[in-house]
Specification:
single chain, mainly beta, 14% helix, Gyrase A, domain 2, 4-stranded mixed beta sheet, globular, 2 helices
Length: 122
């Protein structure tokens, strides 16, 4: 799972096997270790919510994903989900969770588990 943060925007991108694991378990976690500390990011299914939500605690960003969305996402053509989450302060936080497509440009990263890019399909 990749994470991209820019200002008040958070995007998670998941490969095929990550979407499958999330669909089976209702949770998917990644972490980055530093000297003496760890930053984690989590996608977690939650009952009783209608849109993406976010939490930050103990060096962990958790995007909460409506449980009702989980079942059909893996086998559907739906790329992802987005929502503008309003924080307690009134600040807006843009959230996006999507399937990770193969890049159209040259890249050195392994993309063998990414979804085919619809723009590359003839």
């Amino acid at each position: 799972m990749k994470i991209r943060i820019k200002g008040n925007s958070i995007r998670y991108r998941l490969t095929k096997s990550e979407v499958e694991a999330f669909s089976r378990n209702g949770i998917y976690k990644e972490k980055t270790e530093f000297n003496g500390d760890t930053f984690s990011y989590v996608l977690k299914a939650k009952e009783g919510i209608d849109n993406l939500e976010a939490e930050f605690s103990n060096n962990t960003i958790t995007l909460l994903f409506p449980k009702s969305y989980v079942e059909n996402w893996m086998d559907s053509n739906k790329v992802g989900f987005s929502h503008i989450f309003v924080l307690n302060s009134g600040t807006k936080l843009k959230l996006l969770v999507e399937k990770d497509f193969v890049c159209m440009d040259e890249t050195v990263e392994d993309q063998s588990d990414n979804y085919p890019n619809p723009k590359a399909i003839n």
